[in-house]
Amino acid sequence: MYEIRSRKRCINGVPFKTYERTLDTDESVVAIEAGSTGLLPDDKGGARTLISFENLSESGIFGKVTKNENGTLDEVEIGVVGNAETVSVLRALMFATKAILDEFEEDEE
């Protein structure tokens, strides 16, 4: 079993809960944090969602962030070299997806 930690985060003054997990394979260690407000009405600015990915080992995971002329995000690239690293990234993305979808599913109830 693995530990999941929760945190409170805030985007544009709107607080929400995120969930963090560290994924450790023999050759790769990554941390993932993800969460969302779930759907919010447009008059409140819509949903706030966060995904944070951290490579905690010196494994073959690298990335690039590109911003446009306004300073907003244009692109995020994550490159992976190696089987263990690929599995770690995929598991991290699956965890992030589940954490965010859980908030959206709560909104539907």
Descriptive overview:
It is built from one helix and six strands. With about 110 residues, it is an alpha+beta fold. The strands form two sheets. It has a four-stranded antiparallel beta sheet, with helices on one face. It has a two-stranded antiparallel ribbon with strand order 5-6. The mean pLDDT is about 90.
Throw out a few tags for this protein.
109 residues; alpha+beta; four-stranded antiparallel sheet; 24% helix; globular
Outline the secondary-structure elements:
Blueprint: E1 4-11, E2 14-24, E3 29-36, E4 49-55, E5 61-67, E6 73-80, H1 83-108
Antiparallel strand pairs: 1-2, 2-3, 3-4, 5-6
Number of helices: 1
Instruction: Compute the number of strand runs.
Output: 6
The description of the largest β-sheet is: 4 strands, antiparallel
Estimate the global geometry from the Cα principal axes.
Answer: globular
Strand order in the sheet with the most strands: 1-2-3-4
What is the chain-wise order of helices and strands?
EEEEEEH
Compact description:
The chain has one helix at 83-108; strands at 4-11, 14-24, 29-36, 49-55, 61-67, 73-80. A hairpin with a 2-residue loop joins β1 (4-11) and β2 (14-24). With 109 residues, it is α+β, with helices and mostly antiparallel strands.
